[in-house]
Amino acid sequence: MDRMQTALALIDLDAGSVTTTHLESAQFPVEDLAIHRGEGIFETVLVSLEAATGAAHVHSAEPHFARFRQSAAMLDLPSPPRELFDAAVSAVIAEVAAGLDGTDTEFSVRYALSRGLDSHADPTAHRSAGTPRSARGWAFPIAVTNGQRAQRAHGVRIVTLNRGYDAYLGESAPWLLIGAKTLSYAVNQSAARHAISQGADEALFVSNDGIVLEGPTSNLVIRRGNALLTPDPRAGLLHGTTQQAVFAGATTAGMTVRYADLTIDDVVEADAAWLVSSVRTAVPVLEVDGKALVHDADSTARLHSWIRAA
Ligand code: PLP
Fold first, then answer.
1. Is 72 left (phi over 0), alpha (psi -120 to 50) or beta?
2. 32 Cα–ligand 1 center, Å
3. Residues of the chain under the 50 pLDDT cut
């Protein structure tokens, strides 16, 4: 199913309240800073419904919320109250689960926090319309598409694209917000479109000085013998919850795991490579810049099971 129930939970941080409505009827104020400045943060979590009982499991719920808090701190946003966001996510899950026919057992929920209204907005007028002036949050569901399921099984071809900064720049330039999961994704979206225009399925960002970073919405993991390696988040990328789940599973299975500075050649010469993220889970990389990689189906199955277990 590519369409999903349209439940929407709105979070008013000032009032400490969560109200549920529907995406079609939601009125998001155009003076909100998230809209014109991308001044907000978000997370997307994968939710699985247990077939027998219908019980919902939010995968990697803790690491997602920890990163949400960290992103808030990097943007000087108020620390998001856990209980309000949990209530919002639970309300969305309950509404979606009630509308599913039992054949669909997974979907994702996106939750977000905006800085709130721009300084030129009239807070009194907005308040009388029920809109909080300051930080506000929301949560809504997104279906897992058949295209995403096909990629998990069959893999993707990727092209490398220059991210435009040197590796580790974020350490000396915190205002760039490298490593925060902000709502400013126009560059990431553009890179994804550029990759498709080049005949590939996905992009892989590389730093100006040749260090592999991440995809526009994913992390890269490679296998080298009995070791899994991934780019160091400090090099200038988002520290992925899925990559962390993969490393935890691999460690338990006796593999070596390591954060490392990787080049494009390291990826091409790897024994296998995957793009990993919450909703795509693990997608095998079939080709990098036209060069074929090994498709290691057994390892892909192991990654899928470690991610499902998180
Ligand atoms: N890197 C970027 C830029 C992303 O947007 C995402 C997720 O959307 C990831 C990495 C993977 O993060 P996670 O595994 O927590 O979904």
1. alpha
2. 24
3. 1-2
